[in-house]
Amino acid sequence: MNCIFCKIITGEIPSYTIYEDEFVKVFLDINPDSNGHMLIIPKKHVLDITEIENEIWNHLLDVTKNMKSLLEEKLKIDGLTLIQNNGVIQEVKHFHLHLKPYYKEGQDLLPVEEIYNKLKEL
Ligand code: 5GP
Ligand code: ZN
Fold it and tell me: Which ligand is located closest to the Cα atom of residue 2?
């Protein structure tokens, strides 16, 4: 299957991976709307909200909560928007949840690599 996100899961396409386990992978969006814009995807290829299994959705939610804490701690975000596109507005046809940080004071967009380093700092 010619799916970009499946290739990100196998490592065929590199990504700035923030977290992964048996079921999900979290990585930085290549074309972020704000600093720390992440995507959470299931490792099993499913299309959209209709196809995702409830167990995986629940797990995704747990991981999302952890990522919110990480963004608050490392990037000092003031807010967070979750978006999950379906149908014609879904560009990549592998389920993904966007986590888009919001900053009260606004922020210049930094290179994705710089954001990755900040998130990975101990
Ligand atoms: P959609 O409109 O399908 O919800 O959004 C797809 C998202 O995937 C976009 O925000 C886009 O920047 C991101 N994206 C597309 N291709 C790649 C890629 O190869 N690597 C990464 N990290 N993100 C990608
Ligand atoms: Zn896929």
Answer: 2
